[in-house]
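Help wanted!
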Amino acid sequence: MNKLFLVAVLLAAPGCGAADDSETTEEALNVNSRYRIESVHLVGQRGQLSHPLRTEINRLQGEKLDDSILKKLADRIKRELNAANVSISVQKGTLPERVVVNFEVKSHQQPLDLKLAKFVYHSKQGWTGDGSASTMIGGNAVTFGLVSDADALVERFSGVRAKIERRNLGTDRLGLRFEFGSFHQQWNEATLAAASPSDIYRSRQFFMPEATLQLARPLELSFGVSFARYRPSLPAAKSGSANAVVTTLRYHQRWGSEQDEREQEALAEYSLRAATHLLDSDPVYTRHEVRGRAGARRGKHKIEAAFLAGRIDGHAPLFERFALGNASTLRGWNKFELDPIGGSRVVHASIDYHFDHLTVFYDTGAVWDQPQHREQKQSVGAGFNFKKGFQLAVAFPLRAGAIEPIFYAGMNF
Amino acid sequence: MTRSRIKAWWVVAAFLSGLALAMWAEELILNWRDNRLEFSAPRVHFLTGKPLERLHKAAQVPFDFQITLWAGTRTQEFRKIPQRFVISYDLWDETYQVVKTLGGLKKVSHLTAPQAEAWCLAQMPVDVSGLAGNELFWARVDIRTQDGKLAPIFGRESITESGISLNSLIDLFSRPAQKEQPHWTLDSGPLTLDELKRSRHAF
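Answered by r_m:
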Protein backbone atom coordinates (compact mmCIF):
# COMPACT_ATOMS: atom_id res chain seq x y z
CA MET A 1 0.00 0.00 0.00
CA ASN A 2 2.81 2.34 0.91
CA LYS A 3 4.60 1.42 -2.21
CA LEU A 4 1.47 2.24 -4.16
CA PHE A 5 1.36 5.55 -2.38
CA LEU A 6 4.92 6.33 -3.43
CA VAL A 7 4.26 5.33 -7.00
CA ALA A 8 1.17 7.51 -6.96
CA VAL A 9 3.24 10.38 -5.63
CA LEU A 10 5.72 10.10 -8.44
CA LEU A 11 3.14 9.65 -11.14
CA ALA A 12 0.59 12.10 -9.89
CA ALA A 13 3.07 14.90 -9.28
CA PRO A 14 2.26 17.45 -11.95
CA GLY A 15 5.19 17.85 -14.26
CA CYS A 16 7.50 15.96 -11.96
CA GLY A 17 10.01 15.03 -14.58
CA ALA A 18 12.46 13.07 -12.48
CA ALA A 19 15.51 13.08 -14.64
CA ASP A 20 19.17 12.51 -14.08
CA ASP A 21 20.96 15.78 -14.24
CA SER A 22 24.65 16.35 -14.64
CA GLU A 23 24.49 19.94 -13.45
CA THR A 24 26.44 20.37 -10.29
CA THR A 25 26.04 24.08 -9.77
CA GLU A 26 24.01 25.51 -6.97
CA GLU A 27 21.74 26.93 -9.64
CA ALA A 28 20.43 23.41 -10.19
CA LEU A 29 19.82 23.00 -6.48
CA ASN A 30 17.57 25.99 -5.94
CA VAL A 31 14.38 26.17 -7.92
CA ASN A 32 14.25 29.95 -7.41
CA SER A 33 17.49 30.52 -9.30
CA ARG A 34 15.47 31.09 -12.47
CA TYR A 35 13.88 34.23 -11.02
CA ARG A 36 15.43 37.67 -11.42
CA ILE A 37 16.04 40.04 -8.53
CA GLU A 38 13.68 42.99 -8.52
CA SER A 39 15.25 44.88 -5.60
CA VAL A 40 17.65 44.42 -2.69
CA HIS A 41 17.19 45.87 0.79
CA LEU A 42 19.21 45.99 3.99
CA VAL A 43 17.01 45.74 7.06
CA GLY A 44 18.20 46.79 10.52
CA GLN A 45 21.45 48.20 9.20
CA ARG A 46 23.64 50.10 11.66
CA GLY A 47 26.77 51.73 10.31
CA GLN A 48 27.95 52.17 6.78
CA LEU A 49 29.02 49.69 4.17
CA SER A 50 32.07 50.29 2.05
CA HIS A 51 31.54 51.70 -1.41
CA PRO A 52 32.58 48.51 -3.28
CA LEU A 53 30.25 46.34 -1.22
CA ARG A 54 27.32 48.68 -1.75
CA THR A 55 28.09 48.68 -5.47
CA GLU A 56 28.10 44.89 -5.52
CA ILE A 57 24.81 44.75 -3.67
CA ASN A 58 23.23 47.23 -6.07
CA ARG A 59 24.55 45.22 -8.98
CA LEU A 60 22.36 42.26 -7.94
CA GLN A 61 19.29 44.03 -9.23
CA GLY A 62 18.18 42.44 -12.49
CA GLU A 63 20.45 39.42 -12.00
CA LYS A 64 19.22 35.87 -11.51
CA LEU A 65 18.95 34.74 -7.90
CA ASP A 66 22.11 32.93 -6.82
CA ASP A 67 22.07 31.62 -3.28
CA SER A 68 25.86 31.28 -3.09
CA ILE A 69 26.42 34.92 -4.08
CA LEU A 70 23.83 36.08 -1.54
CA LYS A 71 25.56 34.08 1.19
CA LYS A 72 28.94 35.56 0.34
CA LEU A 73 27.52 39.08 0.38
CA ALA A 74 25.74 38.41 3.68
CA ASP A 75 29.04 37.24 5.12
CA ARG A 76 30.79 40.42 3.94
CA ILE A 77 28.01 42.62 5.32
CA LYS A 78 28.31 40.81 8.62
CA ARG A 79 32.06 41.45 8.75
CA GLU A 80 31.89 45.07 7.67
CA LEU A 81 29.10 45.99 10.08
CA ASN A 82 30.45 43.72 12.82
CA ALA A 83 26.93 42.35 13.10
CA ALA A 84 25.90 39.31 15.12
CA ASN A 85 24.17 37.79 12.12
CA VAL A 86 23.00 38.67 8.65
CA SER A 87 20.20 36.48 7.33
CA ILE A 88 18.81 36.37 3.84
CA SER A 89 15.11 36.56 3.17
CA VAL A 90 13.77 36.35 -0.36
CA GLN A 91 10.15 37.13 -1.17
CA LYS A 92 7.97 37.35 -4.22
CA GLY A 93 8.42 40.60 -6.08
CA THR A 94 5.71 42.90 -7.37
CA LEU A 95 6.30 41.72 -10.93
CA PRO A 96 5.79 38.11 -12.05
CA GLU A 97 8.83 35.86 -11.68
CA ARG A 98 10.74 38.60 -9.84
CA VAL A 99 11.95 38.37 -6.27
CA VAL A 100 12.94 40.83 -3.57
CA VAL A 101 16.07 40.13 -1.51
CA ASN A 102 16.32 41.35 2.08
CA PHE A 103 19.54 41.17 4.06
CA GLU A 104 18.40 41.23 7.68
CA VAL A 105 21.17 42.61 9.89
CA LYS A 106 21.10 41.65 13.55
CA SER A 107 23.37 43.63 15.86
CA HIS A 108 25.26 42.28 18.82
CA GLN A 109 23.18 42.61 21.96
CA GLN A 110 26.05 42.60 24.38
CA PRO A 111 25.05 43.80 27.82
CA LEU A 112 28.29 45.75 28.18
CA ASP A 113 30.78 46.72 25.50
CA LEU A 114 34.19 47.56 26.93
CA LYS A 115 36.49 49.68 24.84
CA LEU A 116 40.06 50.87 25.31
CA ALA A 117 40.25 53.92 23.06
CA LYS A 118 43.85 54.71 23.92
CA PHE A 119 46.52 53.26 26.12
CA VAL A 120 50.05 54.54 25.65
CA TYR A 121 53.25 55.05 27.54
CA HIS A 122 55.33 58.02 26.35
CA SER A 123 58.84 58.14 27.77
CA LYS A 124 58.55 61.93 28.39
CA GLN A 125 54.87 62.26 29.31
CA GLY A 126 54.14 59.06 31.18
CA TRP A 127 50.96 57.03 30.88
CA THR A 128 47.77 57.87 29.08
CA GLY A 129 44.68 55.72 29.31
CA ASP A 130 41.17 56.18 27.96
CA GLY A 131 38.66 53.40 28.53
CA SER A 132 34.89 53.21 28.43
CA ALA A 133 31.95 50.87 28.86
CA SER A 134 28.83 51.12 26.69
CA THR A 135 25.43 49.59 26.89
CA MET A 136 22.08 50.01 25.14
CA ILE A 137 19.19 51.34 27.20
CA GLY A 138 15.89 51.84 25.41
CA GLY A 139 17.53 52.24 22.02
CA ASN A 140 20.09 54.72 23.36
CA ALA A 141 23.80 53.98 23.56
CA VAL A 142 24.98 54.95 27.02
CA THR A 143 28.72 55.21 27.63
CA PHE A 144 30.72 55.81 30.80
CA GLY A 145 34.45 56.27 30.63
CA LEU A 146 37.52 56.96 32.70
CA VAL A 147 40.39 58.92 31.28
CA SER A 148 43.81 60.13 32.30
CA ASP A 149 45.34 61.81 29.26
CA ALA A 150 48.75 63.43 29.19
CA ASP A 151 49.09 63.11 25.44
CA ALA A 152 46.51 65.15 23.56
CA LEU A 153 46.83 68.56 25.23
CA VAL A 154 49.43 70.49 27.17
CA GLU A 155 47.63 69.49 30.37
CA ARG A 156 47.08 66.10 31.91
CA PHE A 157 43.35 65.77 32.41
CA SER A 158 41.96 62.96 34.51
CA GLY A 159 38.35 62.23 35.23
CA VAL A 160 35.12 60.77 33.97
CA ARG A 161 33.13 61.01 30.78
CA ALA A 162 29.54 60.07 30.06
CA LYS A 163 27.67 60.02 26.80
CA ILE A 164 24.15 59.16 25.76
CA GLU A 165 23.56 58.80 22.06
CA ARG A 166 20.59 58.05 19.87
CA ARG A 167 21.75 57.20 16.38
CA ASN A 168 18.33 57.17 14.81
CA LEU A 169 16.10 60.13 15.54
CA GLY A 170 13.05 59.22 13.50
CA THR A 171 15.32 58.70 10.52
CA ASP A 172 18.71 57.05 10.27
CA ARG A 173 20.03 60.28 8.76
CA LEU A 174 19.75 62.16 12.04
CA GLY A 175 21.32 61.31 15.38
CA LEU A 176 21.62 63.13 18.69
CA ARG A 177 24.06 62.84 21.55
CA PHE A 178 24.77 64.44 24.90
CA GLU A 179 28.26 64.29 26.27
CA PHE A 180 29.49 65.23 29.71
CA GLY A 181 32.97 65.25 31.22
CA SER A 182 34.54 66.27 34.50
CA PHE A 183 38.33 66.46 34.82
CA HIS A 184 41.08 67.50 37.14
CA GLN A 185 44.25 68.96 35.70
CA GLN A 186 47.95 68.44 36.30
CA TRP A 187 50.48 70.73 34.68
CA ASN A 188 54.04 70.33 33.53
CA GLU A 189 56.60 72.68 35.09
CA ALA A 190 57.37 74.13 31.67
CA THR A 191 53.72 75.03 31.14
CA LEU A 192 53.39 76.59 34.58
CA ALA A 193 56.47 78.67 33.88
CA ALA A 194 55.29 79.84 30.46
CA ALA A 195 51.59 80.43 31.04
CA SER A 196 49.93 83.31 32.77
CA PRO A 197 48.81 82.15 36.24
CA SER A 198 45.24 83.17 35.41
CA ASP A 199 45.21 80.74 32.48
CA ILE A 200 45.95 77.74 34.68
CA TYR A 201 42.88 75.91 35.99
CA ARG A 202 42.61 72.96 38.31
CA SER A 203 39.38 71.44 37.13
CA ARG A 204 36.98 71.73 34.25
CA GLN A 205 33.64 70.28 33.24
CA PHE A 206 31.90 70.30 29.92
CA PHE A 207 28.47 69.46 28.59
CA MET A 208 27.86 69.16 24.87
CA PRO A 209 24.56 68.38 23.13
CA GLU A 210 25.23 67.67 19.47
CA ALA A 211 23.19 66.48 16.48
CA THR A 212 24.61 64.67 13.47
CA LEU A 213 22.95 64.89 10.09
CA GLN A 214 23.86 62.62 7.19
CA LEU A 215 23.93 65.05 4.28
CA ALA A 216 24.81 62.54 1.58
CA ARG A 217 26.64 59.43 2.64
CA PRO A 218 29.51 59.50 3.53
CA LEU A 219 29.27 63.25 4.14
CA GLU A 220 27.85 64.28 7.50
CA LEU A 221 27.42 67.46 9.48
CA SER A 222 27.50 67.70 13.25
CA PHE A 223 26.31 70.79 15.05
CA GLY A 224 25.69 71.65 18.65
CA VAL A 225 26.82 73.67 21.62
CA SER A 226 29.65 73.06 24.05
CA PHE A 227 29.36 74.47 27.57
CA ALA A 228 32.65 74.31 29.45
CA ARG A 229 33.32 75.58 32.93
CA TYR A 230 36.74 75.71 34.55
CA ARG A 231 37.99 76.66 37.99
CA PRO A 232 41.26 78.64 37.98
CA SER A 233 44.08 77.66 40.27
CA LEU A 234 44.37 81.14 41.71
CA PRO A 235 42.50 81.10 45.00
CA ALA A 236 40.60 84.36 44.52
CA ALA A 237 39.77 83.91 40.84
CA LYS A 238 36.20 83.18 39.86
CA SER A 239 35.21 80.28 37.63
CA GLY A 240 35.32 80.80 33.90
CA SER A 241 33.03 79.60 31.16
CA ALA A 242 33.92 78.80 27.57
CA ASN A 243 30.65 78.28 25.74
CA ALA A 244 30.86 77.71 22.03
CA VAL A 245 28.84 76.76 19.00
CA VAL A 246 30.46 73.67 17.49
CA THR A 247 30.14 72.50 13.91
CA THR A 248 31.93 69.69 12.13
CA LEU A 249 31.70 68.70 8.50
CA ARG A 250 33.05 65.20 7.98
CA TYR A 251 33.69 62.95 5.01
CA HIS A 252 34.71 59.39 5.80
CA GLN A 253 34.83 56.76 3.13
CA ARG A 254 36.24 53.27 3.05
CA TRP A 255 36.76 50.92 0.16
CA GLY A 256 37.27 47.26 0.88
CA SER A 257 37.70 45.67 4.28
CA GLU A 258 40.34 43.93 6.34
CA GLN A 259 39.46 40.66 4.67
CA ASP A 260 40.09 41.99 1.17
CA GLU A 261 43.43 42.07 -0.60
CA ARG A 262 43.06 45.83 -1.07
CA GLU A 263 41.65 48.39 1.28
CA GLN A 264 41.50 52.18 1.11
CA GLU A 265 40.24 54.82 3.45
CA ALA A 266 39.82 58.58 3.27
CA LEU A 267 38.81 60.99 6.02
CA ALA A 268 38.45 64.74 5.75
CA GLU A 269 37.08 66.89 8.52
CA TYR A 270 36.63 70.56 9.19
CA SER A 271 35.51 71.73 12.61
CA LEU A 272 34.68 75.14 13.93
CA ARG A 273 34.17 76.24 17.53
CA ALA A 274 32.99 79.76 18.07
CA ALA A 275 32.80 80.97 21.66
CA THR A 276 30.68 84.05 21.96
CA HIS A 277 29.23 86.35 24.61
CA LEU A 278 25.82 85.36 23.29
CA LEU A 279 26.35 82.03 25.05
CA ASP A 280 27.68 83.82 28.15
CA SER A 281 31.24 82.78 27.39
CA ASP A 282 34.08 84.57 29.17
CA PRO A 283 36.72 84.14 26.48
CA VAL A 284 35.65 84.97 22.94
CA TYR A 285 37.41 83.07 20.22
CA THR A 286 36.99 81.01 17.08
CA ARG A 287 38.87 77.80 16.52
CA HIS A 288 39.19 76.25 13.06
CA GLU A 289 40.65 72.84 12.52
CA VAL A 290 41.10 70.81 9.34
CA ARG A 291 42.13 67.19 9.46
CA GLY A 292 42.70 64.74 6.67
CA ARG A 293 43.81 61.16 6.50
CA ALA A 294 44.21 58.80 3.59
CA GLY A 295 45.38 55.22 3.66
CA ALA A 296 45.78 52.37 1.24
CA ARG A 297 46.65 48.75 1.87
CA ARG A 298 47.58 46.05 -0.55
CA GLY A 299 48.32 42.74 1.08
CA LYS A 300 50.85 43.37 3.82
CA HIS A 301 51.86 46.79 2.48
CA LYS A 302 50.06 49.78 3.88
CA ILE A 303 50.71 53.48 3.52
CA GLU A 304 48.98 56.26 5.43
CA ALA A 305 49.22 60.02 5.13
CA ALA A 306 47.73 62.47 7.60
CA PHE A 307 47.34 66.23 7.63
CA LEU A 308 46.35 68.74 10.30
CA ALA A 309 45.98 72.50 10.17
CA GLY A 310 44.42 74.78 12.73
CA ARG A 311 43.98 78.39 13.70
CA ILE A 312 42.59 80.14 16.75
CA ASP A 313 41.54 83.76 16.72
CA GLY A 314 40.97 85.37 20.07
CA HIS A 315 42.07 84.23 23.51
CA ALA A 316 41.14 80.58 23.94
CA PRO A 317 41.62 78.58 27.14
CA LEU A 318 44.57 76.19 27.21
CA PHE A 319 42.45 73.09 26.51
CA GLU A 320 41.57 74.54 23.10
CA ARG A 321 45.14 75.28 22.01
CA PHE A 322 47.03 73.08 19.59
CA ALA A 323 49.82 70.83 20.75
CA LEU A 324 52.35 68.93 18.65
CA GLY A 325 54.93 66.45 19.91
CA ASN A 326 52.79 63.65 21.26
CA ALA A 327 52.12 60.02 20.31
CA SER A 328 50.53 60.95 16.98
CA THR A 329 52.17 64.22 15.89
CA LEU A 330 55.84 65.13 15.60
CA ARG A 331 56.68 61.82 17.24
CA GLY A 332 60.17 62.10 18.69
CA TRP A 333 59.69 65.65 19.91
CA ASN A 334 58.69 66.66 23.41
CA LYS A 335 55.69 69.00 23.22
CA PHE A 336 56.90 71.01 26.21
CA GLU A 337 60.08 71.83 24.29
CA LEU A 338 58.14 72.83 21.19
CA ASP A 339 55.55 75.02 22.85
CA PRO A 340 54.72 74.40 26.51
CA ILE A 341 51.40 76.26 26.35
CA GLY A 342 50.40 75.06 22.90
CA GLY A 343 49.91 77.29 19.89
CA SER A 344 47.16 79.18 18.17
CA ARG A 345 48.42 78.07 14.75
CA VAL A 346 49.36 74.61 13.69
CA VAL A 347 50.30 72.71 10.55
CA HIS A 348 51.33 69.09 10.58
CA ALA A 349 51.74 66.23 8.14
CA SER A 350 52.88 62.67 8.56
CA ILE A 351 53.40 59.62 6.47
CA ASP A 352 53.49 56.06 7.81
CA TYR A 353 54.49 52.95 5.93
CA HIS A 354 53.64 49.53 7.32
CA PHE A 355 54.86 46.19 6.14
CA ASP A 356 53.27 43.35 8.04
CA HIS A 357 54.16 44.11 11.68
CA LEU A 358 56.81 46.73 10.96
CA THR A 359 56.22 50.47 10.70
CA VAL A 360 58.37 53.43 9.72
CA PHE A 361 57.13 57.00 9.82
CA TYR A 362 58.07 60.58 9.09
CA ASP A 363 56.42 63.61 10.72
CA THR A 364 56.79 67.29 10.02
CA GLY A 365 54.98 70.32 11.36
CA ALA A 366 55.01 73.55 13.24
CA VAL A 367 53.04 75.09 16.08
CA TRP A 368 53.27 78.81 16.83
CA ASP A 369 51.55 81.99 17.92
CA GLN A 370 53.56 84.69 16.19
CA PRO A 371 54.71 84.21 12.59
CA GLN A 372 58.29 84.94 13.55
CA HIS A 373 58.20 81.98 15.94
CA ARG A 374 57.06 79.53 13.31
CA GLU A 375 59.67 76.84 12.87
CA GLN A 376 59.22 73.63 10.97
CA LYS A 377 60.24 70.48 12.86
CA GLN A 378 60.76 67.00 11.55
CA SER A 379 61.08 63.54 13.04
CA VAL A 380 61.42 59.91 11.98
CA GLY A 381 60.77 56.68 13.75
CA ALA A 382 60.07 52.98 13.54
CA GLY A 383 57.80 50.60 15.35
CA PHE A 384 56.53 47.10 15.70
CA ASN A 385 52.88 46.14 15.90
CA PHE A 386 52.10 42.97 17.78
CA LYS A 387 48.96 41.00 17.32
CA LYS A 388 46.00 42.16 19.44
CA GLY A 389 46.91 45.82 18.81
CA PHE A 390 49.95 46.21 21.09
CA GLN A 391 52.56 48.57 19.62
CA LEU A 392 56.14 49.58 20.34
CA ALA A 393 57.83 52.53 18.66
CA VAL A 394 60.87 54.71 18.91
CA ALA A 395 61.14 58.15 17.30
CA PHE A 396 63.93 60.69 16.84
CA PRO A 397 63.71 64.44 16.30
CA LEU A 398 65.67 65.58 13.25
CA ARG A 399 67.77 68.43 14.54
CA ALA A 400 71.30 69.50 15.08
CA GLY A 401 72.95 68.62 18.34
CA ALA A 402 72.10 65.92 20.82
CA ILE A 403 69.31 63.64 19.74
CA GLU A 404 67.32 61.95 22.43
CA PRO A 405 64.90 59.25 21.28
CA ILE A 406 61.39 58.97 22.65
CA PHE A 407 59.83 55.58 23.24
CA TYR A 408 56.18 54.68 22.91
CA ALA A 409 54.40 51.56 24.02
CA GLY A 410 50.73 50.73 24.21
CA MET A 411 47.61 50.30 22.13
CA ASN A 412 45.66 52.50 19.70
CA PHE A 413 48.00 55.46 19.56
CA MET B 1 -23.36 -22.61 10.32
CA THR B 2 -24.29 -18.97 10.39
CA ARG B 3 -22.61 -18.68 13.75
CA SER B 4 -19.29 -20.04 12.47
CA ARG B 5 -19.48 -17.69 9.43
CA ILE B 6 -19.87 -14.68 11.75
CA LYS B 7 -16.90 -15.86 13.76
CA ALA B 8 -14.70 -15.98 10.66
CA TRP B 9 -15.82 -12.48 9.71
CA TRP B 10 -14.84 -11.22 13.11
CA VAL B 11 -11.43 -12.84 12.88
CA VAL B 12 -10.76 -11.29 9.44
CA ALA B 13 -12.09 -7.90 10.55
CA ALA B 14 -10.03 -8.00 13.72
CA PHE B 15 -6.92 -8.98 11.76
CA LEU B 16 -7.39 -6.26 9.13
CA SER B 17 -8.22 -3.53 11.62
CA GLY B 18 -5.31 -4.58 13.81
CA LEU B 19 -3.01 -4.53 10.82
CA ALA B 20 -4.35 -1.15 9.71
CA LEU B 21 -3.98 0.23 13.23
CA ALA B 22 -0.43 -1.12 13.46
CA MET B 23 0.45 0.43 10.13
CA TRP B 24 -1.11 3.72 11.14
CA ALA B 25 0.80 3.68 14.41
CA GLU B 26 4.13 2.90 12.76
CA GLU B 27 6.32 5.84 11.88
CA LEU B 28 8.65 3.86 9.67
CA ILE B 29 7.09 1.45 7.20
CA LEU B 30 9.17 -1.17 5.38
CA ASN B 31 8.24 -3.02 2.22
CA TRP B 32 10.07 -5.86 0.55
CA ARG B 33 10.28 -6.07 -3.21
CA ASP B 34 12.74 -7.91 -5.44
CA ASN B 35 15.25 -8.40 -2.67
CA ARG B 36 15.12 -4.74 -1.78
CA LEU B 37 13.70 -2.96 1.20
CA GLU B 38 11.77 0.19 0.51
CA PHE B 39 11.01 2.77 3.18
CA SER B 40 8.25 5.22 3.79
CA ALA B 41 7.16 7.36 6.72
CA PRO B 42 3.95 9.17 5.78
CA ARG B 43 3.40 10.32 9.37
CA VAL B 44 6.82 11.90 9.70
CA HIS B 45 7.17 15.46 8.43
CA PHE B 46 10.57 17.05 8.30
CA LEU B 47 9.47 20.03 6.24
CA THR B 48 8.48 21.89 9.37
CA GLY B 49 9.83 24.45 11.82
CA LYS B 50 13.02 26.35 11.02
CA PRO B 51 13.91 24.38 7.89
CA LEU B 52 10.47 25.25 6.50
CA GLU B 53 10.95 28.92 7.43
CA ARG B 54 14.22 28.94 5.51
CA LEU B 55 12.60 27.25 2.53
CA HIS B 56 9.89 29.88 2.46
CA LYS B 57 12.64 32.53 2.32
CA ALA B 58 13.88 30.88 -0.89
CA ALA B 59 16.87 29.16 0.72
CA GLN B 60 17.93 25.72 -0.44
CA VAL B 61 18.01 23.39 2.54
CA PRO B 62 20.09 20.21 2.54
CA PHE B 63 18.64 17.20 4.33
CA ASP B 64 21.02 14.34 5.13
CA PHE B 65 19.51 10.88 5.31
CA GLN B 66 21.07 7.67 6.53
CA ILE B 67 19.48 4.24 6.55
CA THR B 68 21.09 1.59 8.77
CA LEU B 69 20.21 -2.09 8.96
CA TRP B 70 21.43 -4.41 11.73
CA ALA B 71 21.10 -8.17 11.24
CA GLY B 72 21.27 -11.01 13.79
CA THR B 73 21.87 -8.75 16.73
CA ARG B 74 21.32 -5.04 17.26
CA THR B 75 25.05 -4.45 17.27
CA GLN B 76 25.88 -6.17 13.98
CA GLU B 77 25.66 -3.68 11.17
CA PHE B 78 24.45 -5.10 7.88
CA ARG B 79 24.01 -2.08 5.62
CA LYS B 80 24.52 1.67 5.94
CA ILE B 81 23.38 4.00 3.17
CA PRO B 82 23.72 7.77 3.29
CA GLN B 83 22.13 10.27 0.94
CA ARG B 84 21.79 14.05 0.73
CA PHE B 85 18.72 15.77 -0.68
CA VAL B 86 18.61 19.49 -1.35
CA ILE B 87 15.12 20.92 -1.14
CA SER B 88 13.98 24.32 -2.29
CA TYR B 89 10.58 26.00 -2.35
CA ASP B 90 9.41 27.75 -5.49
CA LEU B 91 8.21 31.17 -4.33
CA TRP B 92 5.98 31.73 -7.33
CA ASP B 93 4.74 28.18 -7.97
CA GLU B 94 4.47 27.42 -4.22
CA THR B 95 5.73 23.88 -4.74
CA TYR B 96 8.91 22.07 -3.75
CA GLN B 97 11.91 20.89 -5.73
CA VAL B 98 14.08 18.06 -4.43
CA VAL B 99 17.53 17.18 -5.75
CA LYS B 100 19.22 13.89 -4.85
CA THR B 101 22.92 14.70 -4.83
CA LEU B 102 24.74 11.43 -4.17
CA GLY B 103 25.37 8.90 -6.95
CA GLY B 104 24.34 11.27 -9.73
CA LEU B 105 21.98 14.20 -9.48
CA LYS B 106 18.29 13.43 -9.72
CA LYS B 107 15.80 16.23 -9.61
CA VAL B 108 12.05 16.40 -9.20
CA SER B 109 9.94 19.51 -8.97
CA HIS B 110 6.35 20.77 -8.54
CA LEU B 111 5.80 18.63 -5.44
CA THR B 112 3.68 19.29 -2.40
CA ALA B 113 5.41 19.03 0.98
CA PRO B 114 4.26 15.41 1.69
CA GLN B 115 5.19 14.42 -1.85
CA ALA B 116 8.67 15.89 -1.43
CA GLU B 117 9.16 14.10 1.88
CA ALA B 118 7.98 10.79 0.43
CA TRP B 119 10.17 11.14 -2.65
CA CYS B 120 13.32 11.36 -0.55
CA LEU B 121 12.75 8.03 1.20
CA ALA B 122 11.58 6.42 -2.04
CA GLN B 123 15.04 7.12 -3.49
CA MET B 124 16.75 5.02 -0.83
CA PRO B 125 15.89 1.35 -1.32
CA VAL B 126 18.28 -1.04 0.41
CA ASP B 127 19.54 -4.23 -1.19
CA VAL B 128 19.05 -7.06 1.29
CA SER B 129 20.84 -9.83 -0.64
CA GLY B 130 22.58 -12.01 1.89
CA LEU B 131 19.98 -11.53 4.57
CA ALA B 132 18.21 -14.82 5.38
CA GLY B 133 14.41 -14.77 5.33
CA ASN B 134 14.10 -15.79 8.97
CA GLU B 135 16.98 -13.66 10.26
CA LEU B 136 16.04 -10.89 12.64
CA PHE B 137 16.92 -7.38 11.56
CA TRP B 138 16.41 -3.83 12.71
CA ALA B 139 16.16 -0.69 10.60
CA ARG B 140 16.77 2.97 11.38
CA VAL B 141 16.34 6.10 9.31
CA ASP B 142 18.21 9.22 10.47
CA ILE B 143 17.34 12.58 8.99
CA ARG B 144 19.29 15.73 9.76
CA THR B 145 19.45 19.20 8.42
CA GLN B 146 21.73 22.17 9.01
CA ASP B 147 20.89 24.84 11.54
CA GLY B 148 20.44 27.59 8.99
CA LYS B 149 23.57 29.60 9.61
CA LEU B 150 25.60 30.83 6.68
CA ALA B 151 27.29 27.50 6.08
CA PRO B 152 28.03 26.42 2.54
CA ILE B 153 25.56 23.98 1.16
CA PHE B 154 28.25 21.36 1.23
CA GLY B 155 30.50 21.83 4.20
CA ARG B 156 34.13 22.25 3.18
CA GLU B 157 34.94 18.83 4.58
CA SER B 158 32.32 17.23 2.38
CA ILE B 159 33.61 18.42 -0.94
CA THR B 160 35.36 16.03 -3.27
CA GLU B 161 36.06 16.27 -6.95
CA SER B 162 32.74 14.68 -7.68
CA GLY B 163 30.80 16.71 -5.18
CA ILE B 164 29.75 15.34 -1.84
CA SER B 165 31.40 12.13 -0.69
CA LEU B 166 29.92 9.04 0.89
CA ASN B 167 32.52 9.03 3.61
CA SER B 168 31.83 12.58 4.64
CA LEU B 169 28.14 11.82 5.02
CA ILE B 170 28.89 8.72 7.06
CA ASP B 171 31.25 10.81 9.21
CA LEU B 172 28.50 13.33 9.64
CA PHE B 173 26.12 10.71 11.00
CA SER B 174 28.80 9.17 13.21
CA ARG B 175 28.70 12.37 15.22
CA PRO B 176 25.65 12.95 17.41
CA ALA B 177 23.27 15.62 16.17
CA GLN B 178 23.87 19.00 17.72
CA LYS B 179 21.38 20.13 20.32
CA GLU B 180 19.64 22.68 18.10
CA GLN B 181 20.10 20.78 14.88
CA PRO B 182 16.75 19.61 13.51
CA HIS B 183 16.89 15.81 13.34
CA TRP B 184 14.57 12.81 13.24
CA THR B 185 15.28 9.17 14.07
CA LEU B 186 12.86 6.47 12.96
CA ASP B 187 13.29 2.88 14.18
CA SER B 188 11.70 -0.36 13.19
CA GLY B 189 12.32 -3.96 14.27
CA PRO B 190 13.04 -6.63 15.08
CA LEU B 191 11.61 -7.93 11.83
CA THR B 192 12.30 -10.74 9.37
CA LEU B 193 12.08 -10.66 5.61
CA ASP B 194 9.61 -13.54 5.79
CA GLU B 195 7.27 -11.40 7.88
CA LEU B 196 7.53 -8.57 5.40
CA LYS B 197 6.88 -10.90 2.46
CA ARG B 198 3.81 -12.33 4.24
CA SER B 199 2.40 -8.89 5.01
CA ARG B 200 2.95 -7.92 1.37
CA HIS B 201 1.01 -10.98 0.22
CA ALA B 202 -1.75 -10.17 2.68
CA PHE B 203 -2.61 -7.21 0.48
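OP: Thanks! One thing I noticed: The CA atoms of residues 83 and 102 of chain B lie 6 Å apart.
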